[in-house]
Amino acid sequence: MKRVNFTLIELLVVVSIIAILAGMLMPALSQAREKAVAVNCSSRLKQIGTADAFYQADWGYFSPSRESMSGAVPGPSWHGYQNGTGLSDPQIDLTSEQGYLSAYLKKAGVGKKVQEERASNIFICPHSSVDKMLGDDEVTSARGTGYGPNKYLHGMYFMVNANMAASATYLPKKDTKVKQPSSIASFGDAAQNLSGTLAVYDTLSCNGVHFRHSSRANITWADGHVSAETGYYNCTGSSYNSSGPVPGMNLGCLNASKDICNTGTAANPDPALKAQNRYGCTADMK
User: Fold this and answer.
1) Residues 265-285 pLDDT 10s
2) Domain that holds residue 262
3) How many domains, the chain?
4) Are 179 and 284 in contact (CB under 8 A)?
């Protein structure tokens, strides 16, 4: 039987077809991978929300605060035990086994690199951008792990000292103060622009929501449900904040427009706008 060989032209045609097909498939594969990461993140936030519910049941239906007290380092926080000195020190060691919610969740590894922990640590968002923010360290952060609690709901501190006013911003709120739990954010993807560098942060507030999952942020609401949300990019003058979404980079606010305040209702008394606020305002939850 006569052997038939490919000509060079035919070989080039086949290679070209394969390259075209690969080019068509790569975006789909990339999107599928990103979707899987977002689903994993959503699952972790769901578990954090469930742990929050158990914590409230054990502690008089008060939410866990961001940390124990202003300047109280070392000390416990919602996600671990802080051994560092504050935002000026990016090497803040977090022992995830000793946080307010740790007793209700799978224990995190101690002494492991962030990249290792990101694969399984519920307190760390699985998105690759968190690696870049935390660096090649043991489980450390600039006061955060990629997630943060809504400071107007959870409060900044477990207690206040004599130099601090006992305002609603500082202290955790009881569940009876949350009138519409399905529309008030509890935990979610968070970060901040720290001296021109994107850093993880442990407070979910205006300008601190990180839309890292294809221009969306995963949010656990006060009633326990989780959803992927877009928001208003209201910070300007930084490469991490702009008028248009930049996947994995933009910081902003969950509220849909700049007219909806998240730091108090006095500036925006319009009931229609107030009803759209997704953080709960200081004036609402005293």
Assistant:
1) 445 556 666 666 777 655 455
2) 9-77+143-284
3) 1
4) yes
